[in-house]
C-alpha cells in the first residue's frame, strides 16, 4: 500500500525528488535542535506550484498527512513529523526546489518570490536593484521565505520595519485538497473584505502550503552605524532605548540586549579573544542606526547621541564599529548566541515578549527565581529588547550534564518564566511560534473562545486534519475538557 503511494508521488515529482530511504530522510525528519525525530513515508520535493497542488490532491484523496518544510530552522519542532503522526501515513513536503526570484519591480518596491527562496537570496536579489528586504535573522542562509511567513518571523530589525506579517503584500497558497489560491497582489491598499493572507501567515503549515509571495522592498539606507554599549542593567537599557529614540527617532533599527553569560558563551564558541571593554560588565546592548546622511555625518550624529547618553550614566562604556568588518564582528557575537546554546546543550529556551515597561522587572524577577532553583545556572538572556522580546534561556551549569539539568529544571523554569510573562500581559512565544513544543501550553494562555475559533478555521480549511497535524493547536478534546 505504502509502496503504491510512494510510486504515485514519484510520478508527480520524479523519482530523484521523492526520498524514501530512511538514511536519506533523516535530515528532513529531525528538527534543527535534534530534539524531535519523526517518521515519514517519503520526503517529497516538488519543483513548482502545479506539482505542489498535485501532491496535495493525492495526499488529500488518500488521507496522507503533510508536514510542510522550508529550511527546517525553526526551534519548536514544527517542521518535522511528530510521534502522533506515526498513526497514519505522512510525508514531509520540502519546498527547497521552489527557489526562484520570479520578478522584481523597483518602481512598485515589490518582489515576487517562490516560497523556497532563502532569506539570504531574497535579500541579495533586493540589493541587486538597490533596495532593501529588511527581515534579518541568524538563520538567514538556510531559512526560506515560506518558513518565514509561516512562522511570522521577527529578528533584529523589527523595531524599524516590523515582522514578516508587515513585509508581505500577497500570497499564493495551495489548499489541503490541492486547490490553488492566487492572492499574489502587489497592492499597499486593498480593502476588499477579509484579508486572507493573514490567516496563513503564522499558521505554521497547519492550513495550507505557501508557494509564493509578493514582498515589500524599502530604500537602502545610505549609512549604518553600530555600537556595542555596556549598561548597568535592564532598567538602564530601557531608559537608554527611550533616550536614543528621542535623539535618533526611527533611525534605530536594532536594540539587542545581551547578558554577560550570553556574551561569554558565544565568545567561547567563536574563540573570540579580542578585548571588548577594559572592564567586565553584566549587561550589554548592541545598537544599530541607519541614516540617509553620508557615513561620516551619520557616525558623528550617532556618536554625539551616545556620548550624551554616557554623560547621563545610561551608558557605562561604548565600542563603536569602526568599519563594516568591525560591525559584522559585533553582529556575529549577537547572532551566534543561539547556535552556541544549541551546541552546548541544556538550555531552557523561553522566547517571551512583554510590554517594554515590564522588561526590567520581568528579567530581574525571573532570574532570581531561576537562581533559587539552581544557583549555578548560566543566565543566558538576550534578544530584541526594542520589541519587548527577550530570549530568556537559562543554561546548565558547566559541570552538570544537559540531560540532568533539563530533567531537573526545564519544566519548572518554563512555568516560572511563562507565568511571569503572562502576569504582565505578555506572550509565551514572541517570534518562534508554537510548533509542537509550546502547543499544549496554549491551553493555559488562550481562552476557550480563542482556541475553539482557531479550530473552526482549521476544520473549515482542513476538514480531514491532514495539514501538519499535532502542531500549533492543542488537541480539540483537550480544549473542550479544559473548558468543562
Ligand atoms: C541560529 C538561529 C537564529 C534564529 N533567529 C530567529 C530570529 O531572530 N527570529 C525569528 O523569528 N526566528 C529565528 N529563528 C527561527 C527560524 O529560523 C525561523 O522560525 C524561520 O522563519 C523558519 O524558517 P524555515 O524556512 O527554516 O521554516 P521551517 O523550520 O522549515 O518551518 C517552520 C514552520 O513553517 C512551516 N512551513 C515551512 N515552509 C512552509 C510553507 N512554504 N508553507 C506552509 N508552511 C510552511 C513548517 O511546517 C513549520 O511549521 C532562528 C533559528 C536559528 C537556527
Summarize the topology.
Blueprint: H1 2-13, E1 18-19, H2 22-29, E2 42-44, H3 49-61, E3 65-69, E4 90-94, E5 101-105, E6 110-114, H4 119-127, E7 131-132, H5 145-150, H6 158-161, E8 168-174, E9 180-183, H7 197-200, E10 209-216, E11 218-219, E12 223-231, H8 234-248, E13 252-259, H9 260-270, E14 283-291, H10 295-312, E15 317-320, H11 324-335, H12 337-344, E16 350-353, H13 359-373, E17 381-383, E18 389-392, H14 402-423, H15 442-445, H16 448-461, H17 476-483
Parallel strand pairs: 2-4, 3-4
Antiparallel strand pairs: 1-2, 5-6, 6-10, 7-11, 8-9, 8-10, 12-14, 12-15, 13-14, 13-17, 16-18, 17-18
The structure holds flavin-adenine dinucleotide.
What does this 3D model show about the protein?
The protein is an alpha+beta fold. 38% of the residues lie in helices and 18% in strands. The protein has helices spanning 2-13, 22-29, 49-61, 119-127, 145-150, 158-161, 197-200, 234-248, 260-270, 295-312, 324-335, 337-344, 359-373, 402-423, 442-445, 448-461, 476-483, and strands at 18-19, 42-44, 65-69, 90-94, 101-105, 110-114, 131-132, 168-174, 180-183, 209-216, 218-219, 223-231, 252-259, 283-291, 317-320, 350-353, 381-383, 389-392. Strand 5 (101-105) and strand 6 (110-114) form a beta hairpin. The model has no long low-confidence stretch (mean pLDDT 96). The structure holds flavin-adenine dinucleotide. The site of flavin-adenine dinucleotide has 37 residues, from strand 3, helix 5, strand 10 and helix 12.
Amino acid at each position: 500500500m505504502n509502496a503504491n503511494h510512494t510510486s504515485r508521488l514519484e510520478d508527480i515529482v520524479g523519482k530523484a525528488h521523492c526520498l524514501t530511504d530512511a538514511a536519506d530522510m533523516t535530515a528532513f525528519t529531525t528538527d534543527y535542535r535534534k530534539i524531535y525525530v519523526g517518521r515519514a513515508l517519503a520526503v517529497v520535493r516538488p519543483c513548482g506550484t502545479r506539482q505542489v497542488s498535485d501532491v496535495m490532491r493525492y495526499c488529500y484523496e488518500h488521507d496522507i498527512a503533510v508536514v510542510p518544510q522550508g529550511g527546517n530552522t525553526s526551534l519548536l519542532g514544527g517542521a518535522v513529523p511528530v510521534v502522533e503522526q506515526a498513526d497514519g501515513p505522512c510525508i514531509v513536503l520540502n519546498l527547497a526546489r521552489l527557489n526562484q526570484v520570479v520578478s522584481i519591480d523597483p518602481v512598485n518596491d515589490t518582489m515576487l518570490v517562490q516560497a523556497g527562496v532563502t532569506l539570504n537570496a531574497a535579500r541579495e536579489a533586493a540589493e541587486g536593484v538597490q533596495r532593501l528586504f529588511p527581515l534579518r535573522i541568524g538563520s538567514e542562509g538556510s531559512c526560506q521565505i515560506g518558513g518565514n511567513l509561516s512562522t511570522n518571523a521577527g529578528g533584529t530589525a523589527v523595531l524599524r520595519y516590523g515582522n514578516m506579517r508587515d513585509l508581505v503584500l500577497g500570497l499564493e497558497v495551495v489548499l489541503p485538497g490541492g486547490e490553488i489560491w492566487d492572492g499574489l497582489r502587489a497592492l499597499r491598499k486593498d480593502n476588499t473584505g477579509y484579508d486572507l493572507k493573514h490567516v496563513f501567515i503564522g499558521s505554521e503549515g497547519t492550513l495550507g502550503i505557501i508557494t509564493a509571495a509578493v514582498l515589500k522592498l524599502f530604500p537602502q539606507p545610505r549609512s549604518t552605524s553600530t555600537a556595542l554599549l555596556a549598561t548597568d542593567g535592564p532598567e538602564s537599557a530601557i531608559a537608554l532605548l527611550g533616550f536614543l529614540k528621542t535623539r535618533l527617532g526611527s533611525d534605530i533599527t536594532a536594540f539587542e540586549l545581551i547578558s554577560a553569560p550570553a556574551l561569554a558563551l558565544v565568545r567561547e564558541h567563536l574563540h573570540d579573544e579580542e578585548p571588548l571593554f577594559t572592564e567586565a560588565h553584566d549587561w550589554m546592548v548592541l545598537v544599530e542606526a541607519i541614516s540617509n546622511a553620508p557615513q561620516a555625518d551619520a557616525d558623528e550624529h550617532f556618536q554625539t547621541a551616545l556620548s550624551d547618553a554616557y554623560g547621563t550614566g545610561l551608558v557605562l562604556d561604548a565600542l563603536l564599529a569602526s568599519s563594516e568588518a568591525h560591525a559584522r564582528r559585533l553582529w556575529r557575537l549577537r547572532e551566534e548566541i543561539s547556535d552556541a546554546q544549541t551546541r552546548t546543550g541544556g538550555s531552557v529556551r523561553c522566547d517571551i515578549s512583554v510590554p517594554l515597561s515590564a522588561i526590567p522587572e520581568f528579567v530581574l524577577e525571573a532570574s532570581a527565581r531561576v537562581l533559587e532553583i539552581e544557583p549555578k545556572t548560566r543566565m543566558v538572556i538576550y534578544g530584541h529588547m526594542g520589541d519587548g522580546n527577550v530570549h530568556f534561556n537559562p543554561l546548565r551549569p558547566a559541570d552538570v550534564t544537559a540531560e540532568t539539568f533539563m530533567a531537573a529544571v526545564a519544566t519548572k523554569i518554563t512555568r516560572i518564566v511563562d507565568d511571569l510573562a503572562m502576569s504582565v500581559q505578555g506572550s509565551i512565544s514572541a517570534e518562534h511560534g508554537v510548533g509542537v513544543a509550546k502547543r499544549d501550553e496554549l491551553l493555559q494562555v488562550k481562552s476557550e473562545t480563542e482556541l475553539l475559533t482557531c479550530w473552526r478555521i482549521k476544520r473549515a480549511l482542513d476538514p480531514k486534519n491532514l495539514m501538519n497535524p499535532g502542531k500549533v493547536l492543542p488537541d480539540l478534546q483537550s480544549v473542550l475538557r479544559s473548558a468543562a
